[in-house]
Design goal:
Elements: H1 15-18, H2 21-37, H3 43-60, H4 64-71, H5 74-82, E1 93-99, E2 102-107, H6 108-134, H7 137-146, H8 151-180, H9 187-218, H10 235-257
Antiparallel strand pairs: 1-2
Helix pairs in contact: 2-6, 2-10, 3-6, 4-6, 5-6, 7-8
Amino acid sequence: MKHSFLDQYSDRNSFVHRLDPRTKLVAVFLFILAVALTSPVMWPVFAAYFIIIATLIVLSSVPVLYVLKRSLVIIPFVLLIAIFVPFFKEGEAITSFNIWTWQVTATYHGLQVLVTILVKAWLSILSLILLTSTTKITDLLRGLEQLRLPRVMVMVLSFMYRYIFILTDEVMSMKQARDSRNFGGNRLWQIKTIGNMAGTLFIRSYERGERVYDAMLARGFDGQSRTLHHLSFGLSDLFFGLSFGLVVILTCIFNFIHW
């Protein structure tokens, strides 16, 4: 399995790519926080957020179609969580129908909340896709560590990103071995086989983790990651950080004034 699908465009040379990972991490956090705090009725503010993130995507030289395809993946998960919101919010009814002895009513306010959740989730995932597409994962982890994120969390993220692909390859090998043995039978037999595969994968993962940890200790691992590439904060980072922060803060002020 290819392990560069998250940051496959991170080696390009654009203004956004050259920014320090810490600058981009803080900017994305500020952007998501501003989006989350925006009131549901402020559609001009959401439009302004979209213009900001769309401008950065164009400047980053990351294919727009690639970003759109990846951003739409989040929509089904958000719908799965928020699809029932229109039926639990009070307000003017859109439609009403009966399910056995219950009368279910969808309201305009609930539908507005649902659309707002979708828009906020989409804008947030756009910013995260832009971040991961323009920054190498190793640089992101280094930036998180220097921003004083707990070292244990950074290490867990690092190992998760490194070994999730190995585990995926392991699952594909087990699936191929299962299919080569003419996987069939009744539903109960299939469930039992899949359960055995899951148990085997857990044991193999645990044993691999023990071997990796022993190998790291043998090489003098002391809990701190070290890289040859050092992050540097320059004038472009200062200019971008101040400009981006000012635009987002002004947009938030406009939101709270007209709320």
